[in-house]
Amino acid sequence: MVIDSLLPSATASAHAHPVAIGGVVIGGPTVPVISGPCAVEPDYVAHARAAASAGASVLRGCVHKPRTAPEAFQGMGSAGLALLDEARRVTGLPVIAEPLDVDQVAQLVPHVDALMIGARSMHNTPLLRAAGRTGLPVVVKRGMSATIEEWLAAARYVLLEGNDQVVLCERGIRTFETATRNTLDLSAIPVLRDRTELPVIVDPSHAAGKASLVPALAIAAVAAGADGLLIESHPDAEHALCDSAQAISSEVLAEVVRATELLVTSARPSPATTIGQCRDAIDGVDSALARLLERRATLVARVERIKLDTGVPIRDHGREAEVTERVALLAPHLGQAGATAVMSAVIDACIATALAGA
Ligand code: PEP
Ligand code: MN
Is the pTM of this model over 0.85? Predict the structure, then answer.
């Protein structure tokens, strides 16, 4: 389970430039999920509540939408700003939104906690500069045909305004492949670890273009070391006014958040030093342990069912000693005595509940 030694380039330890959106740290020990509908719609507050209940840490709140076709819904514009205020108030979560031009930067600032520069705007240098001057965190999405060097150059336009709160967001690039909307370039994460200290997040939604593909890409991004995720979600995805095909439901979002926490706990070293930080990290480990214990109990129930059906004795002390021995080897801090205490309790509990349910 603990695979951090395999991931030197895919962990937060390689870089040291956390960015805070409201109170949410990107590039720290946790991997926050930014989520909400593609565009702010009249029911946005309900959508924001659903994203918050599913475990999102930051809300997408795009009132202006860059759309390929001028006939498509362009977002609610200034009419959506009050909804951002209300969503922030009821969920307590920070909000990120995308300005499409320099004038929209000043309009958004009182209503948001961070700005997002969209893929189509990555080359818009006046916009990058204006976003940088606000001092708010700026998420710079990769242009759909931008190289990593061009993307980093875009980020420098923000940095050069004296704003070091910059996050890079991989969202898929244009390739010959048409099965997905874009091709998610996960190699960008370890490549960037060597070139920048800026946190890197991943948007699997615009890469996939299809909701069913989003969880796999999200989890792959976390495994590759992403510092955060930007995911489009909608409680009634079918009727979303923008990008409905790629919006995941609130239930799927909750699963992605849980899987992300599990993966981060299992695969990344914890930098915790204070009592509070250690307790947070321990809570994460306990959640991971609980899920694994649940899986173990289910497997034991299956084994006991077969044993009962075939007349094999329930207890196998040789096998139990082997299990304990392996745990003692894998958990040297627990030691032989600790491993014996823990595993005999686990084995007894799993067998007892299996027999009770048999
Ligand atoms: C978005 O995130 O709202 C968006 C339009 O994505 P991109 O700029 O990556 O296409
Ligand atoms: Mn979208």
Answer: yes
